[in-house]
């Protein structure tokens, strides 16, 4: 049965960050994800997760920056990943090592590695693709070497993001993503399938989900409505139907709720009730 994770960069925005963890546990979530953990010390985050019985299931590698201070300001400065950016090798390597440090401290086995955004004239350059593939392969090897005995392997994920929301984003189709993963063929790389972005770019989220499941590379799913990027209880992305499809396929991984609630987060969770833990707070299970 798929397990729901609250994306704290989108949900519970009516609360300060510290209170979002408590609210997610109270509402029956077993896991959380958010874009960037780097604003906080890893020890403090780990303690907060333990206190609320939550599992950190996903976060992003840094959007940019070659120092911790630069990492913390990178998103606001317009960085959207460095994996395919010319001249960003140092920032990419620093970001991967920092992300692996946080993953080990938080017990998180999924890291999203953003590819970067380019001006339109660079969007289809073959040399950029080869650079992107080389960097992903290097990062996967670093994840493999950092694996601690007894811990779940850390898998680096790539995700296609639609270019309406993120103009110039390098990786924007499932075909690109699957071709890259198959070409590199590393066990520490996997697919993050965001059905909102999928529907926006390619349509037919259900067919794209089947394709992802069939590839054997699917490691994380995210959902939101189209249009509106709100609760997936109406429109082209049918959240309950897609969760039932995942259940029928035997998917036991996490599904991140990466949407903007129409009102308060809690008021909009009725559609997800069958997949939330009755009574809230409790221990999260291990990640497959």
From TrEMBL:
Residues 21-274 form the Xylose isomerase-like TIM barrel domain. Keywords: Isomerase, Pyruvate. The active site is at residues 159, 258. Signal peptide: none annotated. One of its GO terms (biological process) is glyoxylate metabolic process. Pfam families: AP_endonuc_2 (PF01261). It comes from the Bacteria. GO terms for molecular function: hydroxypyruvate isomerase activity. InterPro entries: HyI-like, Sugar_Epim/Isomerase, Xyl_isomerase-like_sf, Xyl_isomerase-like_TIM-brl. PANTHER family: HYDROXYPYRUVATE ISOMERASE-RELATED, ISOMERASE. Belongs to the hyi family. This is Hydroxypyruvate isomerase. It comes from Vandammella animalimorsus.
